[in-house]
Amino acid sequence: MAVLVWLLIPVAGAVVAGLWSTWATRRRSGVGGVKDAAGVRGYEAFRAAMERAPADG
């Protein structure tokens, strides 16, 4: 019986790790979710600025 308890510990740990990874990597959207649109717009503005010719050149 003690062997089963020791076997249950890593199995329970694997189940908890799987549930946590599912929860941690979920897509958040809606109210309070990840707002990628503002980040993408900022990145596009940065790229456009870097692609322009220098003003003093």
What would you say this structure looks like, in words?
It contains two helices and no strands. It has helices spanning 2-24, 36-51. It has 57 residues and is mostly helical.
Give the topology, please:
Blueprint: H1 2-24, H2 36-51
Write a brief caption for the model.
The chain is mainly alpha-helical and 57 residues long. The chain has helices spanning 2-24, 36-51.
Order of helices and strands: HH
Q: How many helices?
A: 2
Strand count, sense and closure of the main sheet?
none
Q: How many angstroms separate the termini?
A: 80 Å
Tell me the total number of β-strands: 0
The best one-word shape is rod-shaped
Structural class: mainly alpha
List keywords for this structure.
single chain; 57 residues; mainly alpha; 2 helices; 68% helix; rod-shaped
